[in-house]
Structures are given as structure tokens and as C-alpha cells.
Write a sequence for this structure.
């Protein structure tokens, strides 16, 4: 596995691969790699000739009061995991290479960025869209891989790729969960032992809501059930949202029909966790 820091060198190498007719799979990450990231890597390796991952903790997607400074960084362990998974290249830029002096152009994500997490993290998805657009231009992949845990992020990136004519297939891969159902996330590292146990309530809430949908519950009954289950856990200190959404528009639904997205963002102390589940009613 080559480790390259300079965008121009990655760009040239990727262009050479594409010119030789090789497909390139790209897995963008912020490091602190876990089973979720590794499932994306495995999928990319299955579907492409070349697999590239990036590790870059993107400062412009963090709000001023968020966890940029303490975001988990473990580059040695990440490199070891990537080598074990036998990828071709790791793009490992630093802030100055991604945002050199004078950088001032950004992508503005549209209305999807204002819903769900966007209400609590203003500007977050513009930061994500901007860095992903840069990463797409640097790696020019055939396919790029994202996890369904960040459902809203994946939807916004798909929309950006369509709107800005990136000729890239965006592949969304299933959520990978711990043994008790907690969705894998780099931020799970922030949880202490008690919070870690309590965090599985989020998945249990989603499961209970899914079962209630299948047994004919109404929108308001299901929403109340989710909120009640989450609120019954004293270590869940805040629920940013817990509801049922249209998976294409991210609007809250008024009727139980077709495909639905159950989505939650909840805080355990300082740690904000998100999770979701798609439910097909038909
Ligand atoms: O999901 C993430 O890890 C990040 O938001 C991404 C897509 C790598 C952009 O910084």
C-alpha cells in the first residue's frame, strides 16, 4: 500500500489507472477505522481493480463547539488495518494541502442539508460536500463507498454527484453493528462503559419502532414509542430527533406507507450518536 500525501500525485496516479481501463474504488474516511469502514473497503476491493482510501479529519465540517480537537486519531492502527486489507493507496493529506492559504470556494448543499442533523449542525453538510467534491476530483474514482449509518450524508453526496455531474457511482453499504446492535462509529470511543451499554437502547428503539410499523401502528404512536424508549434510558441526556421520514426527501411522514426511514440522533453526555433503519411497509 502506497501512502501519498500530495493531492497532485494522487491525481496523476489515479488518472493513469483510469487511462489503463482500471476501475477505481474510493473509500473516504476520517480515520479511527472500525468494522464499518472495513466493510466499505472489502466491498470496494470486490468491485474494483484498484482501491484507495483517504484519511482526513476535515476541519470545515465541524462547528465551533464540536469535537474537532478531540476527534479520535490513531493513524498507526489505521495504517495497519488498511495494510491488512491490502488496499492499493492511502491518501493522507494534511489541512494545509487540502485547504491552502487563500482557499475560499465551497460547495453549498441544498435543502436536504437543512433537515435532521442539519438543524443541529449548521454548515456541517456544506463542509462534507466541499471536501467530498475535492476528494472526488483528486481520486476520480469509478465508485465511491459510504455507510448507511450516515444516511443523510450519503443522500446529500448522491445529490451533489448528480447535480455537479460527477461521473461517479455512489455506493451506500449496510450499517455494521456491534453484538448488541449499536451502530459502529468512531465516536463510540468517547463512551464510558455505562454509556456504551446504554447506547444500545438506540438500536432497540429503532427495532421496536420497526416492529410497531409492521403491526399497524400510526405515525404518532410509533414516534412516541421511540421517544419513550430513548427517554427511559437515564444516560441518554438529549434526543435531537427520533422520528419517521421519507427516505428521499427527509421530510417527516404523515402516513405509514412504502419505504420509510426511522432515524435518531441522541446524546449521551457530550457524545452525539446517530442511527437509522429503513423499513419497507409493502
Ligand atoms: O463520513 C465521514 O467520515 C466524513 O464525513 C467524510 C465522508 C469522510 C467527509 O469528511
Amino acid at each position: 500500500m502506497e501512502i501519498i500525501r500530495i493531492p497532485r500525485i494522487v491525481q496523476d496516479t489515479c488518472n493513469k489507472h483510469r487511462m489503463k481501463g482500471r476501475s477505481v474504488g474510493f473509500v473516504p474516511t476520517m480515520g479511527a477505522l472500525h468494522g464499518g469502514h472495513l466493510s466499505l473497503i472489502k466491498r470496494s476491493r470486490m468491485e474494483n481493480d484498484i482501491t484507495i482510501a483517504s484519511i482526513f479529519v476535515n476541519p470545515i465540517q465541524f462547528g465551533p463547539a464540536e469535537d474537532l480537537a478531540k476527534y479520535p486519531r490513531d493513524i498507526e492502527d489505521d495504517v495497519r488495518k488498511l495494510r491488512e486489507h491490502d488496499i492499493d493507496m492511502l491518501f493522507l493529506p494534511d489541512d494545509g494541502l487540502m485547504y491552502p492559504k487563500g482557499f475560499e470556494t465551497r460547495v453549498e448543499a441544498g435543502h436536504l442539508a437543512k433537515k435532521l442533523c442539519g438543524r443541529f449542525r449548521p454548515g456541517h453538510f456544506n463542509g462534507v460536500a466541499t471536501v467530498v467534491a475535492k476528494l472526488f476530483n483528486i481520486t476520480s474514482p469509478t465508485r465511491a463507498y459510504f455507510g448507511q449509518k450516515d444516511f443523510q450524508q450519503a443522500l446529500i453526496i448522491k445529490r451533489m454527484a448528480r447535480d455537479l455531474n460527477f461521473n461517479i457511482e455512489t455506493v451506500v453499504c449496510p450499517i455494521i453493528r456491534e453484538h448488541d446492535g449499536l451502530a459502529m462509529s468512531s465516536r463510540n470511543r468517547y463512551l464510558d462503559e455505562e454509556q456504551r451499554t446504554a447506547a444500545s437502547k438506540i438500536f432497540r428503539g429503532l427495532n421496536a419502532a420497526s416492529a410497531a410499523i409492521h403491526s399497524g401502528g400510526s405515525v404518532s404512536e410509533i414516534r412516541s414509542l421511540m421517544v419513550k424508549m430513548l427517554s427511559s434510558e437515564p444516560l441518554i441526556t438529549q434526543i435531537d430527533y427520533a422520528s419517521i421520514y421519507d427516505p428521499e426527501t427527509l421530510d417527516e411522514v404523515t402516513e405509514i406507507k412504502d419505504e420509510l426511514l426511522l432515524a435518531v440522533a441522541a446524546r449521551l453526555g457530550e457524545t452525539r450518536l446517530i442511527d437509522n433503519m429503513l423499513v419497507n411497509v409493502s
